Amino acid sequence: MQEFQNLGRYIVRSEKQRCAYGKFEENFEELNKNPVEGFSAGLIDDNDLYRWEVLIIGPPDTLYEGGVFKAHLTFPKDYPLRPPKMKFITEIWHPNVDKNGDVCISILHEPGEDKYGYEKPEERWLPIHTVETIMISVISMLADPNGDSPANVDAAVRWPSLFTLSFLNTIQLDIEYIFLFPKPFKQVKRADASGSSL
């Protein structure tokens, strides 16, 4: 993964490129000054501003905890007017990631109305979004998938049962713990209104 220090050598040929260049520079400067917990990002190739590599740390208390997942962000030439595409390079099984690794979440969908009616326009791509807002959304997606519009139907169908199984395993461990280490039983005497013990 290459760092962003070498951007000064790029030749900006059009207004769209100038806009994209400024947005890329702004994104990298912000990420370098104020790194965000949970991911890191950089250029795949010093000579290509439009392709980034990100490493995402699996969020705690999820199926992905402890994992590190590599993904690529590919930006269109008219970025930031249109969203980048994101693809996991590390194999990942998730309702909102298709079998090819392509991420399907609102923030990465083209601006405007959703023809299927699942998303509000403000949930979709806006030019004010940054790599940071994208990555925070993806990390949130890992913890809390959107089952209403899955990219991987098999994962969406099986996802609830994984959490039920995880919950049942936790209860089973709690019950085993109670039987292994029971609390001593104390008989409690209480007095009724007249003051005599019950």
UniProtKB/TrEMBL annotation:
Q: What does this protein do?
A: Accepts ubiquitin from the E1 complex and catalyzes its covalent attachment to other proteins. In vitro catalyzes 'Lys-48'-, as well as 'Lys-63'-linked polyubiquitination. May be involved in degradation of muscle-specific proteins. Mediates polyubiquitination of CYP3A4.
Q: Tell me the superkingdom of the source.
A: Eukaryota
Catalytic residues at C104
Please state what class of enzyme this protein is. Answer: transferase
Record Gene3D superfamilies: Ubiquitin Conjugating Enzyme (3.10.110.10)
Task: Identify the InterPro entries for this entry.
Answer: Ub_conjugating_enzyme, UBC, UBQ-conjugating_AS, UBQ-conjugating_enzyme/RWD
Q: Which residues are in the UBC core domain?
A: 19-180
Could you tell me which pathway this protein works in? Protein modification
GO biological process entries: protein ubiquitination
The protein's Enzyme Commission number: 2.3.2.23
What family is it from? Belongs to the ubiquitin-conjugating enzyme family.
This protein is called: Ubiquitin-conjugating enzyme E2 G1
One MF term in the entry's GO annotations: ubiquitin conjugating enzyme activity
This protein's species is Dipodomys ordii (Ord's kangaroo rat)
